[in-house]
Write a structure and sequence with these properties.
By secondary structure, the chain is of the alpha+beta class. It has 2 helices and 5 strands; from the N terminus they run βαββββα. Helices cover 37% and strands 36% of the residues.
Length: 94
């Protein structure tokens, strides 16, 4: 299994950090047909061939995604999409 593991530091308040995570989840859902749900400050997402979690903590947003065999060729694209989206969402946090 191929793994994407991204940690981003932030200084957002809790509500804004959750909103940032929600925006990322919506983007992944639309682009890659990923279903997601919240449990506390952890967003769990999955689809056939991929699953993962996004955790919002006081100073970090952590994304860990496991890709099955069929999604391995798309790892770079998916990883870049996550980085780009977080860059855009956290840009005002600098």
């Amino acid at each position: 299994m191929s793994v994407i593991d991204i940690t981003r530091h932030h200084t957002l308040n809790h509500d804004d950090a959750i909103a940032t995570a929600e925006d990322l989840a919506k983007s992944l859902s639309e682009r890659f047909d990923v279903a997601y749900s919240w449990s506390g400050d952890t967003l769990t997402f999955k689809r056939s061939g991929a699953k993962g979690k996004l955790t919002v903590e006081p100073t970090i947003i952590h994304v860990k995604m496991e890709l099955g065999f069929l999604f391995r060729p798309f790892k770079g694209r998916i990883e870049q999409e996550i980085h780009d989206h977080l860059d855009g969402l956290l840009e005002n946090d600098k």
